[in-house]
Amino acid sequence: MREYEHLFEPLNISEMAGSLNPEEHVEAACSSSDPEPETEQRTIQWSPELALMLAVLEDAVACYRRTLKRPRQNPEILARQAEFWVRLEDWEAPFSFNNICDALGLDPVATRERVLTGAPAEKAA
User: Fold this and answer.
1) Quick one: which of 45, 60, 50, 59 has its CA closest to 100?
2) Which H, E and C letters describe the chain, residue by residue?
3) pLDDT range class, residue 15, cuts 50, 70, 90
4) d(CA 36, CA 26)
5) Which residues have a Cβ under 8 Å from the Cβ of 121 and sit 6 or more positions away?
6) What is the pLDDT of residues 82-116, one digit of tens each?
């Protein structure tokens, strides 16, 4: 989300008042020549550890949304455990949600919100 924060800055109406074409201001704002330091793309050197972290995150999302094809145990229990793990604000454990998101270059707060707003699938009748 940090990459797009500059797009949500309020427009200066007094600057636009002199122009007949507001699209010019939008194009100028989007094509700034100075990349902001926080918007630079971060490249990830994939390692076995990062692949495992990605697999843990994907499994947690699948457990929370109850979309596992072959659940290891009761899907309700898995969903509750996954939700607990996602909601936990832990920076100490190496495989905590926050540390996995950080290692993968994801914002933990935005990722947590995105996972939790995707409602779990309905129970199969």
Assistant:
1) 50
2) CHHHHHHHCCCCHHHHHCCCCHHHHHHHHHCCCCCCHHHCCCCCCCCHHHHHHHHHHHHHHHHHCCCCCCCCCCHHHHHHHHHHHHHCCCCCCCCCHHHHHHHCCCCHHHHHHHHHHCCCCCCCC
3) very low
4) 17
5) 65, 66, 67
6) 999 999 999 999 999 999 999 999 999 999 999 99
* The residue type at 125: A
Token readout for 20 is 């007949």
Asked whether 59 and 36 are in contact (CB, 8 A), the reply is no
At residue 33, what is the residue type?
Answer: S
> What pLDDT band is residue 28 in, cutting at 50, 70 and 90?
very low
Token representation of residue 8: 């949500």
Return the domain boundaries, the chain: 2-39, 48-117
